[in-house]
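note to self: dont lose this again. the chain is below, predicted strucutre after it. 201 aa total, dont forget to put it in the shared folder this time
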Amino acid sequence: MTNKIYRPHLSTASDARAVRTREALRVALLDLLESKPLDQITIRDIAAAASIGYTTFFRHHPTKESLLDDLAAEEIRSLIGLVMPVMDARSAREGSEALFTYVDERRALWATLLTGGAAGALRSELLRISMEIAAERSPPSTWPPFEVVTLLVVSGTLELLSWWLRQASPLSIPEIAEIHHRNVVEPAWVPGQKPSGQAKA
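---
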């Protein structure tokens, strides 16, 4: 996994056929990950599953790891739609359950992303996007600062997901969602007051 989520060149992204090919590659890798780990998947496997030529693969990605980066970026965009409701106290419990349901439906992929060496890039990208959205949604007077809350929720969410995906007998979705809600989301969103008892200089 590279240190940065891969993004195709804009001129390529604007080409409809190239967009369809990239989507076929993402779907092919996702399907292959359901049956074997990334280190056992070859570029020829991916190209065949995507119904494209072997050399065509390299017009879009230099390595299978960069394709995984691209797939991770797509997953992050989908997951953000579930993470942000978690940041909203009115629907936090439902957001937690939706988040773990989403990951469970893509368990092989997320296990690869979070426990196969991709966690650093995934965390950085998820945190970056979450910070941008939180900045738009949070008033300047928010306490604790939205940056702190976002950091705690995103970091805690990814650590809990990683732990859950490693378990041979994982907790049920309602159970893990309850842990997430009570131990990651609620503590970060308890209304607070700025410290007022600090000694004056």
